[in-house]
Amino acid sequence: MVLNNSLTMSHEYALKVLHSNAIAIDATAGNGYDTLFLANHCKSVYSFDIQQTAIEHTRELLLKNNISNVELILDSHERLNQYVTHQVDCVMFNLGYLPGGSHQISTNYKSTIIALKQAMKLLGKNGLIIIVIYQGQDSGFLEKEKILSFLTTISESKFIVMKYNFCNQSNHPPILAIIEKK
Ligand SMILES: C[S@@+](CC[C@H](N)C(=O)[O-])C[C@H]1O[C@@H](n2cnc3c(N)ncnc32)[C@H](O)[C@@H]1O
């Protein structure tokens, strides 16, 4: 297939800005797959999650893969700017709940939008914020609507914002949105 799903596309776009000196943030560590991917393609990664279980799953995955360039942070991404104060190249948000975990503990649009605003301030020129937005899950429709609506308000002179969506697929496939700093 040429038209990959949103998750695969999120990594394909990240690769465009990752390099051996790049700095990345995984705003939602979860089971650590995105953190591992980022760590393999850049100098250092800050990886956030509000759940201890997610941080431990991520730590185990990194250990198994001999990865040591990740700082794991057990805190909400809405406090991202308390941990990262310098310019970054790529920020990934893979929204929703921890696969295999409680559906009650999920990202929510209020803190996601606070974190997106902070991430936008940290982005260097041509840096990317990559967001995988789920819909149709427990709170997914509301989060999707609010985030897509927030994206339309972003300054056109400072950022390019795109949305990648499938229009003929059942079961509400995830949407990919990307913000690029001009
Ligand atoms: C879909 S999972 C992420 C998948 C992950 N990137 C991976 O590769 O496995 C979403 C994660 O976001 C976390 N999360 C929810 N709200 C958060 C917040 N405010 N700050 C940071 N992480 C949060 C959840 O605990 C969950 O682990």
- CATH hierarchy, class: Alpha Beta
Domain unit count = 1
Distance between the termini: 31 Å
How do the strands of the widest beta sheet line up side by side? 3-2-1-4-5-7-6
Largest sheet: 7 strands, mixed
CATH topology: Rossmann fold
Strand fraction? 25-35%
Count of distinct strands:
7
Q: Residue share in helices?
A: 25-40%
Structural class: alpha/beta
Fourth CATH level, the homologous superfamily: Vaccinia Virus protein VP39
Q: Rg to the nearest angstrom?
A: 15 Å
Task: Write up this protein.
By secondary structure, the protein is α/β, with parallel strands linked by helices. The protein has one domain (6-181): Rossmann fold, CATH 3.40.50.150. It has helices spanning 6-17, 33-41, 52-64, 80-83, 109-122, 140-151; strands spanning 23-26, 44-49, 70-74, 88-94, 123-133, 159-164, 175-181. Helix 5 (109-122) packs parallel to helix 6 (140-151). The protein is globular and about 40 Å long.
